[in-house]
Task: structure prediction
Amino acid sequence: MAGYEIDPCEKCEEVMQPFLDRVLSDAELREAEEHLAGCAYCAKRYRFEQSLRQFVRKCCEEEMPPELKEKLAALRTPL
Amino acid sequence: MSGTEEEAAARRAAAEARSRVRFEEEALELSDQVYRVARRLVSSREEAEDLVQETYARAFRSWRSFTPGTNLRAWLLRILTNLNIDRGRRKQRTPDEQPLEESDYFLYNRLEQASRDGNAHEEHVVERLSQDDIVGALSIVPHDFRDVVVLVDIGDFTYQDAAQILDIPIGTVMSRLHRGRRILKRELADRTTGGT
Result:
């Protein structure tokens, strides 16, 4: 049956998103961590994905225009 | 009304005014975060500004329907995404239904291939992408998928919050997030290493 087993790197790739989102079950997490500890190929790609997420967030940090802030404050109910 | 009834009514009115002031202050403190999400949900800065203004106008009008102690940021974003959808977006059907062949390692593999340097440090591989690449690629992701990616990856909302904000099941959040991120990465790969 060995030929029907899923390639461990393929499996690791499948769980990368839920792993990084921290939603894997304890058993799945352990399995992924064990594989990552011994697989530089997957570990590298996980680290890349993590940096990519941070980079996407950084790129989307756009300051709110100060005029808008004033407009919003003006919407407050007068006392 | 007798004197004491009048006093009681005045006290109630004062207490309500205090709650409203507190609500408005807390909502305004979140405006930077609300704007950041809005800016990526729509294509222009003007649209984002309008949307945020409309959101706050509506939030201040219907502040009584907010339950104190619950997530105010998610409540504001729910108003915002509803307004955004009301603006006629629903008419647009998400065209992206064809299967995505690319896997999750796809972007890294493409960048590594393009650099011909298998030993490049992952963090440096990310540096090959520019801010324009990221912002441009995100704007290409179809709305339904982009909403979820923006809420979770930029707005830092949980799957559960995103499900409530968009009024969709959590399973749909997960599948759209997964697909949205893949579309984003495919787009980034095309921008940085040329089309397939």
Observations:
- Chain A has one domain: 2-74.
